[in-house]
Design goal:
Nucleotidyltransferase, domain 5; about 400 residues; alpha/beta; acetate kinase activity; binds adenosine-5'-diphosphate; six-stranded mixed β-sheet
C-alpha cells in the first residue's frame, strides 16, 4: 500500500510518499511560495536525481496536482499511475480538545478543524486547504489527519489549566494544549523499545529541539506535562520564538511603542529567540560557529537557550518525581553534541553522566550517549513525524 503524507502550510506544502510494505520513502519534496508567480517544486525521488521546477502555483489544489504529476512523471516519477496512492495522511497542528487520536477525514472532522481556526490561525486553515486540494485531485482516496496536540490530551487539569479565571477556559478553551505530540510520542516509544522496557515502567523527559523547541514529561507512556501552551509560543527559547516571558511585558510594550496585536505577535514569534539575542541567526550551527569565533552575543544566545532547557528538564524530573530516561531529538537535539554536553554536564545532581566520546560521534542512528555509571539513560532518538502519520493512516484505513 502506498500512502502520501502531506504537511500543508499557508504558502508551502511538504510531502513524502511511503511504501507501507517496508515503510520505505519512495519520494519526498516540497512546494514553496504557493500563491506567488514563481513557486518552486523540489522533488527527491528515491534512487533518482533531485529535480527543481519553477512555475506559477497559485493555490494548494494546483500544488497537489503538480506533486501528483511529478510522482507519475516518466523520468522523475516513481508511480505508473495516480491510482497507486491508496490513502493520504495529513499533519494537523491543532486538534484542540476534540481529538485525542488520529482520525479519518469526514465532513464532521473538517468542521471541527475549522472550529479551531481561532486557536491556530496560521496552521489549521492551511491544513484544510491541503485536505480540500486532495479531495478535488483524488476524490476517491481516503484521507486521515494526525494532530500535533493529540498525544498531550492525557495531561491532567493541574498541568493544562492556566491560573486565570475559569470562565476563560469554559468559554474560550484557553488552556495548555502542547505541540510536537507526534514527535514526543514516537521518540518516547522508541526510547522504551531501545532499552527493552515497557513505556508504562518509565519516566521519560523528551526534548524536541529543532526550529521549534519543546520538552515533555512522559510518565508511564503518557504525556503528563509539556512546555508549549495554548500556542507553540510558550515554553523554551527557540530559533525565532521567545518562549516564556512575563505576560505583563505584552501590554507594557503595546503601551510604550504603540504596537498592534499582530505586530507584537510577529515580534514574539518571528523576531525573538536565538535570532534576537545573537542579533544575526536563528540557526544553531551558526550560533555555535559564532561562539567558537568569540562572538559574545552568540555565546549569550547559546547560554540562555541551554539554561532554559536545563531548567525545564529539572522541573519535569520534579513533576514526575523521577527521570529514568532523557531523550534528545530533532535538528539541534540530534546533531549538537555541544548543547547535549553543556546540558548533561550540569545535571549531575540527577546522577547523569555522559560518555563524551559517544556523544561526539556523529550518527543517524538511535543511540545511548550516557556512560554505564549514569543513573539516567541519556538517548539520542531521531524523530520521524512523517512515518507516524503514514502508520496512523495505514492503521485507520485498514480497520
Ligand atoms: P524544524 O523544527 O523546522 O523541523 P529541524 O528539526 O529540522 O527543524 O531543526 C532545524 C535546526 O537544526 C536548524 O535550525 C539548525 O540550527 C539545527 N541543526 C541542524 N544540524 C545541526 C548541527 N550539525 N549542529 C547544530 N544544529 C544543527
Amino acid at each position: 500500500m502506498k500512502i502520501l503524507v502531506i504537511n500543508a502550510g499557508s504558502s508551502s506544502l511538504k510531502y513524502q510518499l511511503y511504501n507501507m510494505e517496508n515503510e520505505s520513502v519512495l519520494a519526498k519534496g516540497r512546494v514553496e511560495r504557493i500563491g506567488f508567480e514563481s513557486s518552486i517544486l523540489a522533488h527527491e525521488p528515491e534512487g533518482k536525481e533531485e529535480v527543481t521546477e519553477v512555475s506559477e502555483i497559485l493555490d494548494h489544489t494546483t500544488a497537489i496536482k503538480k506533486v501528483v504529476q511529478m510522482l507519475i512523471h516518466k523520468e522523475h516519477g516513481i508511480l505508473s499511475s495516480i491510482d497507486e496512492i491508496e490513502a493520504v495522511g495529513h499533519r494537523v497542528v491543532h486538534g484542540g480538545e476534540s481529538f485525542s487520536n488520529s482520525v479519518i477525514v469526514t465532513e464532521e472532522v473538517k468542521q471541527e478543524i475549522k472550529k479551531l481556526f481561532d486557536l491556530a490561525p496560521l496552521h489549521n486553515p492551511a491544513h484544510i486547504m491541503g485536505i480540500q486540494a486532495v479531495e478535488s485531485t483524488m476524490p476517491d482516496v481516503p484521507q486521515a489527519v494526525v494532530f500535533d496536540t493529540a498525544f498531550h490530551q492525557t495531561m491532567p487539569a493541574s498541568s493544562y489549566l492556566y491560573a486565570i479565571p475559569k470562565a476563560l477556559y469554559n468559554k474560550y478553551k484557553i488552556r495548555r494544549y502542547g505541540f510536537h505530540g507526534t514527535s514526543h510520542d514516537y521518540v518516547s516509544d522508541r526510547a522504551a523499545a531501545f532499552l527493552d522496557k515497557k513505556p508504562e515502567d518509565l519516566k521519560i523527559v523528551t526534548c524536541h529541539i529543532g526550529n521549534g523547541v519543546s520538552c515533555t514529561a512522559v510518565k508511564h507512556g503518557e504525556s503528563f506535562d509539556t512546555s508549549m501552551g495554548m500556542t507553540p509560543l510558550e515554553g523554551l527559547m527557540m530559533g525565532t520564538r521567545s518562549g516564556d516571558l512575563d505576560p505583563a511585558v505584552v501590554p507594557y510594550i503595546m503601551g510604550k511603542v504603540d504596537l498592534r496585536i499582530s505586530e507584537v505577535n510577529s515580534m514574539l514569534n518571528k523576531h525573538s529567540g536565538l535570532m534576537a539575542i545573537s542579533g544575526d541567526s536563528s540557526d544553531m550551527r551558526e550560533i555555535e560557529e559564532g561562539m567558537d569565533a568569540g562572538d559574545t552575543n552568540a555565546k549569550l544566545a547559546f547560554d540562555m537557550y541551554e539554561y532554559r532547557l536545563r531548567k525545564y528538564i529539572g522541573s519535569y524530573a520534579a513533576a514526575m518525581d523521577g527521570m529514568d530516561v532523557l531523550v534528545f531529538t530533532a535538528g539541534v537535539g540530534e546533531n549538537s553534541s555541544t548543547l547535549r554536553k553543556r546540558i548533561c554536564d550540569q545535571l549531575t545532581f540527577f546522577g547523569i553522566e555522559l560518555d563524551d566520546k559517544i556523544n561526539e560521534t556523529r550518527s543517524k542512528n538511535e543511540r545511548r550517549i550516557s556512560s554505564s555509571n549514569s543513573k539516567v539513560e541519556v538517548l539520542v532518538i531521531p524523530t520521524n513525524e512523517e512515518l507516524v502519520i503514514a502508520r496512523d493512516t495505514y492503521k485507520l484505513i485498514n480497520n
